[in-house]
Specification:
The chain is an alpha/beta fold and 282 residues long. Helix content is 38%, strand content 17%.
């Protein structure tokens, strides 16, 4: 098993309209690696992979604006382009001019848009698991996938958040509970579910913004514009693995990687070895 870097440390960076929270570990490498997380949740869920990748480079995982501990964007309906611009502003504040970039799920959409907005700044790009919805599925996701939740006097938001996170691991999509939608990956342990639930509760009023923006993002059109050296990847246990070949066909010159799974230490080791090989290749 590959070694894991020292436990990532937390930091905040001030930006013009708030603060961005991130986890940081490691040192060295050609350029820093910036990591962008899936929805719902925060960069906390990337710490196991961050620790592995940071053995050979400086790596930072950022909470998307309005997720985890990062200040929400001011727009009522921000788009992926807004999240990308806000991420670039945070990297400016961190003094990071050029970087490698990894994004998974919602983070993959933000990462792709960053590479389109600032191609001169992105050395290499890893896009992991993107949903290439058709119009019908996009409409359903926008209606059901990321509901707006308000706190109430009986605390029903706590029960909702727990089951929301739990069902993300049981069904795909989470709101379809028929047998055909059942996932095979199994549940994380109670402590991991609690940690993920707390991250959603922190940003209860804004968690849905990035999720909905990713559903609206015209991925097929935007992926065709990428020019960075790109690896497209997905775990076969991921519900979005079904779109991997199409992702590969849309990103000119991209490399393709199909992983077994990312739920165990062994799966994370496999991913870290493959991602490091891509980032370090001549």
């Amino acid at each position: 098993m590959p070694e894991i870097a020292a436990a990532p440390r937390r930091r905040f960076v001030d930006v013009a309209d708030g603060q961005v929270h991130c986890w940081e570990a490691g040192a060295g490498g050609t350029v820093p690696l910036i990591m962008l997380h899936a929805s719902p949740g925060s960069a906390r869920m990337l710490r196991p992979l961050l620790g592995r990748l940071a053995m050979s480079r400086r790596a930072l995982a950022l909470d998307a604006r309005g997720n985890g501990d990062s200040t929400p964007l001011a727009q009522a309906t921000p788009e992926i382009a807004d999240f990308a611009a806000a991420t670039l502003a945070a990297l400016d504040a961190l003094g990071i001019a050029r970087f490698d970039l990894y994004g998974t799920h919602t983070g993959a959409s933000i990462a792709a848009e960053i590479a389109i907005q600032a191609p001169q700044r992105v050395r290499r790009l890893i896009l992991e698991s993107m949903g290439l919805w058709d119009a019908a599925l996009q409409a359903v996701h926008l209606a059901k996938n990321a509901p707006s939740i308000e706190p109430d006097m009986i605390g029903s938001q706590f029960n909702w958040a727990w089951h929301y996170i739990r069902d993300q691991h049981l069904f795909w999509p989470w709101y379809e509970t028929a047998a055909a939608a059942r996932l095979s990956i199994g549940l994380p342990d109670a402590a991991a579910l609690h940690e993920l639930t707390v991250e959603v509760l922190k940003s209860l009023g804004s968690y849905q913004m990035s999720y909905r923006a990713a559903a609206r993002y015209p991925k097929r059109d935007r992926l065709a514009l990428l020019r960075a050296r790109t690896l497209v990847a997905s775990a076969r246990s991921d519900a979005l693995h079904r779109y991997l070949d199409e992702m590969h066909s849309l990103v000119a010159g991209s490399q393709l990687l199909s992983l077994a799974e990312l739920e165990s230490g062994a799966g994370l080791d496999e991913a870290a070895i493959a991602y490091t090989r891509f980032l370090d290749a001549p």
